[in-house]
């Protein structure tokens, strides 16, 4: 059983954002959630209790043990020179001995290595206080029996890549007993290890990991290429990349930290530099937190989107047991599984993310928050999924073959039977939008909450489903809007809108299906265009809520004109009605009786499907991704044969009030 309990009282809470177990009725405080608890047993079952998400990279780092530091300068006159040669290695100075093709370092100091060992090893066994610094200056070491460099004992170890040098470390494939206490990386350290310098190092791990440190591991600079049959680079207490150019190809995880005992350890942080990972399993995998604060990070897992995974396989891009925090840099992920995944919380406070996923773009078991930055999900099954989702800033765009944004949790199919339309009970789930821009292109429900939706700012634009078994908006509880701009276009069978008692008025209209490429405009009775949108998909309903919509006023929905003005998330604030025709006339704040609206204060669907549009068939298991991955949504996978796609032949009657 593993338990992580982390004090968080010193962390600022994002607008009182707390996870399940805390009050959802209002803003919280530091006393609402002062611990972060994740437990997991031997079967991999994970349970998360009350917690709060760090709101910045700095706070996430402060919740963990600090990475070690080391001196970057030394007196070259004190160096010990070691020449490597098969059966003839030499040492010039004190502190090192040679026995056959094994060189042993016995005391602190700086040791410069040149030459080649075709089957040998460097062992560090220093019991005295002080740093052991290994300068690789054209060193090429291969070992068939153990790690090429094994730091067994030292206060701290540093590997320096001499400027302009080319170095290579490789172990050969061999069988190691599971309970054997021997080095499990081609470059291995039992103490804190730093890799730095202005040269290059290629590491090949043919038995297990490429680089492995049983304490902390810091990559400060240098050009590092790692190819490993299992994990690429592993630091048990932490793995911090603060610079350099790192390329990892691994059969297992790419970058990993796996300390499951110390509650302040087990984190992976990319703070600067360039990191490229191609992993058979997870790209970045942390027992506690994955933190991205800067640099360039490019991750491919499981062969990328479109690849089929075994039931027990994990090929997530960035995966953490506690939190994933992205606050800077450029992150690109192409994952066969979730692109970003946390067993508790995901927070995006900055940076630029481009994600492609064979499953969810971003998945958090508890909370997901976007406060700033750019988040683009180019393909996914579901775009954003968590119990509570908060967007207060930044620019979010996503493409999903199923739901775009989904506030949900638990096992919806625990009884073996999926819930039918309208059968799900509103749970303690929520979507809150107070700022930023959100553009959703969904094949299933566009904006979906099994609980509530509250919007008071920002812009949300939904290009929703074409078939009537889903809706551009789908809310089981109350849907309240008190600011911002909301626009949704999609099918009409499950069309819904914010509650009519919301402080900000909305309009909802259904009409005959319009083909993809059609411009739809909302205008006042005197012809002033409030908004226009060019739909990339067929649609038969429109929802608009903004400060321009006045309760009780009449609005005309027209198609066939052109967009104009300034666009935000694809929605224009003006339009040209030349050549357009009116397909519906509606009243602000009022929805036609039985015409897809909501009871006051509610956001759930009402009314029967539009003519010609049946509800979709049963929802099955989450599908295997098609060849090429989940791209632009078309027919929603995982639906039964009863699902129908809205076509121009569907004869919905225009809504008029």
UniProtKB/TrEMBL annotation:
Species name: Georgenia satyanarayanai
Pfam families with a match to the protein in the record: Cthe_2159
Domain of life: Bacteria
Signal peptide: 1-20
Residue spans of biased composition, Acidic residues class: 646-657
Spans through the membrane: none
Composition-biased stretches (Gly residues): 601-618, 628-641
Alphabetical UniProt keywords: Signal
Chain intervals for the UniProt region annotation (Disordered): 601-657
Protein name: Carbohydrate-binding domain-containing protein
InterPro entries in the record: Cthe_2159
């Amino acid at each position: 059983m593993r338990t992580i309990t982390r004090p968080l009282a010193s962390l600022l809470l994002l607008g009182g954002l707390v996870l399940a177990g805390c009050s959802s009725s209002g803003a919280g405080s530091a006393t609402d959630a002062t611990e972060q608890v994740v437990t997991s047993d031997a079967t991999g079952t994970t349970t998360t209790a009350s917690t709060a998400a760090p709101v910045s990279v700095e706070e996430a780092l402060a919740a963990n043990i600090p990475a070690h530091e080391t001196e970057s300068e030394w007196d070259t006159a004190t160096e010990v020179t070691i020449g490597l040669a098969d059966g003839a290695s030499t040492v010039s100075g004190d502190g090192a001995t040679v026995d056959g093709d094994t060189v042993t370092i016995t005391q602190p100091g700086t040791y410069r290595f040149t030459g080649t060992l075709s089957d040998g090893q460097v062992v560090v066994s220093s019991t005295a206080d002080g740093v052991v610094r290994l300068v690789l200056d054209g060193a090429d070491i291969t070992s068939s029996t153990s790690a090429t460099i094994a730091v067994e004992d030292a206060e701290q170890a540093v590997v320096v890549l001499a400027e302009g040098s080319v170095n290579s470390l490789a172990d050969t494939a061999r069988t190691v007993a599971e309970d054997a206490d021997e080095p499990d990386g081609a470059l291995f350290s039992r103490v804190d290890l730093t890799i730095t310098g202005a040269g290059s190092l290629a590491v090949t791990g043919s038995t297990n990991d490429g680089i492995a440190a049983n304490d902390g591991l810091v990559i400060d600079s240098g050009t590092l290429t790692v190819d490993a049959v299992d994990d690429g680079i592993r630091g048990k207490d932490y793995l911090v990349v603060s610079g350099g150019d790192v390329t990892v190809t691994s059969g297992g995880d790419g970058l990993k930290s796996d300390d499951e005992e110390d509650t302040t350890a087990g984190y992976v942080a990319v703070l600067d530099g360039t990191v490229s990972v191609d992993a058979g399993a997870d790209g970045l995998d942390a027992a506690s937190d994955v933190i991205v604060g800067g640099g360039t990070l490019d991750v491919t897992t499981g062969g990328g989107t479109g690849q089929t995974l075994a039931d027990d396989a994990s090929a997530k891009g960035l995966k953490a047991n506690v939190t994933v925090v992205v606050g800077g840099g450029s992150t690109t992920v192409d994952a066969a599984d979730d692109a970003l995944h946390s067993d508790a919380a995901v927070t995006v406070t900055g940076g630029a993310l481009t994600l492609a996923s064979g499953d969810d773009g971003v998945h958090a078991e508890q909370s997901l928050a976007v406060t700033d930055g750019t988040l683009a999900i180019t393909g996914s099954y579901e775009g954003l999924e968590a119990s509570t989702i908060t967007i207060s800033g930044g620019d979010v765009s996503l493409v999903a073959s199923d739901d775009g944004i989904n506030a949900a949790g638990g096992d919806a199919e625990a009884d073996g039977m999926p819930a039918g339309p309208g059968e799900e009970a509103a749970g303690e789930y929520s979507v809150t939008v107070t700022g930023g821009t959100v553009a959703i292109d969904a094949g299933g429900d566009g904006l979906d909450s099994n609980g509530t939706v509250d919007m008071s700012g920002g812009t949300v634009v939904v290009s929703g489903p074409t078939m009537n078994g889903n809706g551009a908006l789908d809310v089981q509880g109350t849907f309240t809007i008190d600011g911002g701009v909301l626009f949704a276009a999609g099918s009409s069978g499950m069309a819904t809108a914010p509650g009519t008692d919301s402080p900000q008025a909305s309009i909802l209209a259904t009409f005959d299906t319009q083909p993809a490429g059609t411009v739809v405009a909302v205008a006042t009775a005197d012809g002033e265009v409030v908004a226009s949108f060019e739909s990339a998909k067929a649609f038969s309903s429109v929802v608009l809520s903004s400060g321009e919509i006045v309760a009780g006023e009449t609005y005309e929905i027209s198609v066939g004109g052109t967009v104009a003005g300034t666009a935000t998330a694809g929605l224009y604030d003006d339009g040209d009605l030349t050549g357009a025709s009116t397909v519906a006339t509606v009243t602000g704040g009022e929805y036609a009786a039985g015409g897809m609206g909501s009871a006051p204060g509610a956001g759930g669907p009402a009314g029967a499907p539009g003519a010609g549009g049946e509800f979709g068939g049963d929802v099955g298991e989450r599908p295997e991704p098609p060849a090429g991955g989940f791209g632009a949504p078309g027919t929603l996978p995982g639906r039964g044969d009863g699902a129908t796609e809205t076509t121009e032949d569907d004869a919905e009657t225009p809504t008029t009030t």
